[in-house]
Amino acid sequence: MGIGFPEPTAVIVADVNVHNYDASIGQKDNAESLAVTLSTDQETILQSIATAVGGGSGGFNAFNTAPLTDGSFGTVVSKAVLLGETMEICGFNVWGDSDAEWSLEKTSGQIGGTRTSPSNLADQVSYEQCISVVGPDTVTIKARHWYVSETVDFYANLLGRIV
To answer: Which of 18, 30, 80, 143 could disulfide-link 154, Cβ–Cβ 3.0 to 4.6 Å?
Structure first.
C-alpha cells in the first residue's frame, strides 16, 4: 500500500552541491547537481515564499562596463522597463579604474547615487525599500570622473526585479 503524492508538473534543477564521500577514508570524490521535481501546489508555495522575501519573478542583475572620458556623465549600464511592467530597484554595485560620481537615473531624472574615492574605488548601495519605476521607462547608472584627458573603465550592476 503506497502513499499518494500529487503528480509532478515541473522539474527545477538547482546546484545544491550534493557530495559523495568515501566513508572509508573520509574524502569527497565528486560533486553533483540535484534535480528536484515539484507539483503545481509546491511551485505555488515556493513562488509565494520567494515573493514574500523579495525574490519575486523577474529578478535581474544587469551588468555592463564602459570606458568614459573625463568631465561629463556617461552611461555605464541601462535597463528598459516595458509598458505594463514595474521595476523594483533594490540596489546597485559600482567600481572603476578611478574615483567617480555615480548617478542612478530614470528618464525623468536622478533617483539615487553615490560617490567613490581614490582610496575606495567601489561602492555597494542597497535600498531598504526598493525604488519603483513604472514602464515604459529606462533606468541607467552613469558615472563622471575628473582625470583630465583620460579614458578609464567603469563597471556597474543594477539589482532588482520586475513585478
So the answer is: 143
40 pLDDT band (50/70/90 cuts)? confident
Judge contact between 75 and 124, C-beta under 8 A: no
Phi then psi for 48, rounded to 5 degrees? Answer: -65, -40
Residue reference for cell 528618464: 107
Q: For residues 60 and 79, is the Cβ–Cβ distance under 8 A?
A: yes
Q: Please report the domains of the chain, with CATH numbers, ordered by start residue.
A: 10-52 (no CATH), 59-162 (2.60.120.230)
CA 152 and chain centroid, separation: 24
Nearest to 132 by CA among 156, 103, 111, 114: 111
Q: Is the preceding peptide bond at 136 cis, omega within 30 degrees of 0?
A: yes
136, 83 contact by CB (below 8 A): yes
Nearest to 87 by CA among 95, 100, 78: 78
Band of residue 45 on the pLDDT scale cut at 50, 70, 90: confident
- 140 band by pLDDT with thresholds 50, 70 and 90: very high
Answer whether 0.90 is exceeded by the pTM: no
As a whole number of angstroms, the distance between CA 66 and CA 163 comes to 28
